[in-house]
Amino acid sequence: MGDTSTPRTTVRITTCDTDETLAAASGLFEQYRHHYGEPPDADGRALGWLTEMVRSSMLTVYTASVGPGSDAAPVGLATAHATPASLAIGRFWQLRDLYVLPELRGRGAASALVTAVRDAALVAGATRLSLVTEPDNHAALGLYRGLGFRPIEGLTSLSLDLTPGHHHRAEPD
């Protein structure tokens, strides 16, 4: 009998730190933003923003390419950053964004991206890798749980909108 198993897909991860890799990442970043309802970027702001975040060391950007050849276009994107961990007198990393083109999901790109971020965080001496996702994003939750992430019980996530036009008043204690 012949081998009927599905061949393993080759996934290549790139850390985006050149003009060329950031340009490729910005196309995926735009699709990610559009996926979440943001309007198309008609003036190149996304590339400028990604470049600024990477060059200022505020964000690390990774892309995943699937298939043979080193020139395959990226199909997935992850961003991450280090954050001070004051109680541990160290740092932790946060996975900020993870996106894989919908038609190319299920080929290992998301898992490879998260693993690359985890590995970079370990090399950097991080004590933890955290992320936030929507409670109804079952595919993402399944992926993250399968990679060892666990919910943090007893914490509530809060946010204060600082955009112009929003009132920022303190409530009395």
TrEMBL record:
Boundaries of every N-acetyltransferase domain copy: 11-163
Keyword terms: Acyltransferase, Transferase
Domain of life according to the entry: Bacteria
Key word Nucleotidyltransferase present: no
EC numbers, comma separated: 2.3.1.-
Short name of one Pfam family: Acetyltransf_1
Signal peptide range in chain numbering: none
InterPro entries: Acyl_CoA_acyltransferase, Bact_Acetyltransf, GNAT_dom
Name of this chain's protein: GNAT family N-acetyltransferase
Top-tier EC class: transferase
MF annotations from Gene Ontology: acyltransferase activity
